[in-house]
What does this fold into?
Amino acid sequence: MPVDFAKARTFVHAQGTLFERALFDWLFEGGSLQRLRQILFCYKNPDNGFGHGFEHDLKAPQSNPLALEYLLGLMRYTGIPPASLLDGTAEWLESQMDAAGNLINPPAARDYPLAPWWQSAGGQTMPDSIVGNLIHFGAASPVLIKKTARWALENISPESILENDWLFMAYHAFDFFFAIDELPGLRRYRQATIENIIACAQAAPPAQADSLFRFAPEPASLIAKALPAGVLERNLDALAGSQQADGCWLDQHNLPQWQPVTTINALLALRRYGRWA
It folds into this structure.
């Protein structure tokens, strides 16, 4: 089924946040990067953290790790250059780490709408993806790298990585172990991450196809080249054939708030792989 770009654009502009609309325009319509950055700065607090419901599952205005994690993942996948956006972010994150390297969430976050799956922790407590992506953008401090490396060695093993059975969740290991340069057993961690992504991609139902392209954003990427024959094409076929009548791509949990960005991610993956120009 050919991509209906006009319907996708209509959907994102009807249902997306101001940021999502600006991101769509920048990626696909020659829109302003400066305007996109200005909108992102509206989610940044004076303490150099991010909040204000940027991540749809946690609506608190206070700076919180979940908002930062989501921002960094989107920036990396879509190619938004950070410029000065991440100035001071490492120092803020250091202030949100306990002695063991776990992330602390603002208690007031529980006073605002919060998705049920975040209720127990009040938000993200795992530092690996955030710090890995800060390393990727050259914005991680030595303190963050050292504390997160220690946290990873104490909380993650190659065996635990291989036990993951949800493709989406592979981002924790992928973002950190392929960003850090030195760590005892790093080669084993990286190999386990690759094996886990391949296994999850082979087993993933069509509804999870978009998750694969978080790890294989373009044909020349490491994971794309590591996948067995047919896996990439099967997931691309699933993605290409799943645009809905209203123009959107469904989030794998069928949550309406995630459909605009899922649509953006799907269009970007299909364009990068030559399925849509």
